[in-house]
């Protein structure tokens, strides 16, 4: 993320239930979820929200997603 201290919300892609939502410190965040599943991620707040869909959670994941707001 190019802007620090953003709100990050993780939702179950299918049920739309919020798994976690918090304001992170800094510009890097590695969320942890309890189930391997597909998730939607929202980063930012107000008019500057970026949505990412079809993010798969797996046990060993070294993949990085860069988000520009």
How would you describe this structure to a colleague?
By secondary structure, the protein is mainly beta. The protein has one domain. Helices cover 0% and strands 42% of the residues. It has a 4-stranded antiparallel beta sheet, with no helix packed on it. It is globular.
Structural class: mainly beta
What is the helical fraction, as a range of percent? Answer: under 10%
Q: Which runs of at least 5 residues are low in confidence (pLDDT < 50)?
A: none
Tally of separate helices: 0
- Radius of gyration from CA coordinates: 12 Å
Short summary:
Helix content is about 0%, strand content about 40%.
Please give a handful of descriptors for the protein shown.
69 residues, mainly beta, four-stranded antiparallel sheet
Task: Describe the protein's topology.
Elements lengths: L6 E6 L5 E6 L14 E8 L2 E9 L13
Antiparallel strand pairs: 1-2, 1-3, 3-4
């Amino acid at each position: 993320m190019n802007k620090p201290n953003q709100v990050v919300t993780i939702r179950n892609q299918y049920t739309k239930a919020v798994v976690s939502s918090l304001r992170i410190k800094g510009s890097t965040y590695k969320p942890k979820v309890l189930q391997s599943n597909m998730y939607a991620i929202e980063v930012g707040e107000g008019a500057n929200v970026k949505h990412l869909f079809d993010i798969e959670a797996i046990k060993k994941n070294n993949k990085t997603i860069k988000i520009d707001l």
